[in-house]
Specification:
By secondary structure, this protein is mostly helical. It is built from nine helices and four strands; from the N terminus they run H-H-H-E-E-H-H-H-E-E-H-H-H. The chain has one domain (33-131, 174-270). It has helices spanning 35-69, 75-125, 134-139, 162-173, 183-200, 206-219, 241-245, 247-263, 267-270; strands at 150-152, 158-160, 225-230, 233-239. The longest helix has 51 residues, at 75-125.
Length: 274
């Protein structure tokens, strides 16, 4: 390898690492995925959905205003149109929530799944072991030990549970301290809602509605979700609009956290062998 010429050395004495942002270090684990392009695409869809939702809300407001001020022969028809529009909007808002959760959660899973797998490959290639943790004690040499979709119970039993799996392996690898304090709770909430929407559609069984309403209360997730009601009982659950709007920023923060974590890995683990 030839030495760099003098013109290629920054005058301020900074090396390439000094010019990198935390997120860039994730490429040490994953260098085949364009996360930025994915986020741009997601932001575009969320923006279009937001504009459509605002148009629906305005149309409903206009119909409501007309139903309250019009006193002509078609008053009942206008009221019926307003009621129908409100009912239809309940489903369109559910569609917006499913669209958002259907884009952001798979990206979240992809980041964690691929990064943890690559980290495991790195440890194996260098003949090194991860930090001591009960996950590794329980898993021993289990082939799914680096799979974030798998949780290991106290008796070593491996079970598919991505919510507990991500929490466990994040702690086991040392990633957890790099994540924002509310990230784990946000991940729990988004994964739970995704699972219910993708398996139950917009209108869940009465039992599922009651159970999720209780879970929202128990986990203090009111700031994540809202619900339309019928007969004062939960009917359709939504991700709050402000939560949808911040989804790309949440993913960006997770990418930054992963990069900072990778940046701090032992040199002998990430060093490229010549």
């Amino acid at each position: 390898m030839t030495a760099p010429d003098e013109e290629s050395i920054p005058e301020n004495g900074l090396g390439y690492d000094d010019l990198m942002e935390d997120r860039d270090y994730l490429f040490r684990l994953i260098n085949t995925i364009d996360w930025e392009a994915q986020l741009r695409a997601i932001k575009g869809v969320l923006g279009r959905n937001r504009a459509a939702s605002q148009a629906v809300s305005k149309a409903i407001d206009d119909l409501q205003h007309e139903s309250e001020t019009y006193r002509g022969p078609h008053h009942e028809q206008i009221v019926d149109e307003w009621v129908d529009a409100v009912s239809s909007a309940s489903y369109s808002e559910a569609a917006n929530s499913m669209s958002a959760i259907g884009m952001i959660v798979p990206m979240l899973e992809s980041i964690h799944s691929q990064a943890f797998y690559s980290l495991g490959e790195l440890y194996a290639a260098k003949g090194m072991g991860p930090p001591a943790h009960k996950r590794w004690d329980r898993a021993v040499a289990h082939p799914q030990r680096w799979n974030c979709q798998v949780y290991f119970d106290a008796d070593g039993t491996a079970g598919t549970d991505i919510i507990r799996g991500i929490r466990q392996i994040s702690a086991a690898t040392g990633l957890a301290p790099f994540l924002a304090s509310d990230t784990a709770d946000w991940i729990d909430a988004m994964l739970t809602y995704r699972n219910k929407m993708f398996h139950g559609g917009f209108e869940w069984s009465l039992e599922q509605r009651t159970r999720f309403a209780r879970q929202i209360e128990a986990r203090h997730w009111e700031h994540f979700f809202s619900a339309a009601t019928t007969d004062e009982e939960p009917w359709i659950f939504y991700v709050r609009k402000e939560v949808i709007a911040e989804m790309p920023s949440r993913i960006e923060a997770i990418l930054d956290s992963w990069g900072a974590f990778v940046k701090g890995l032992p040199f002998e683990l990430v060093a490229i062998n010549n």
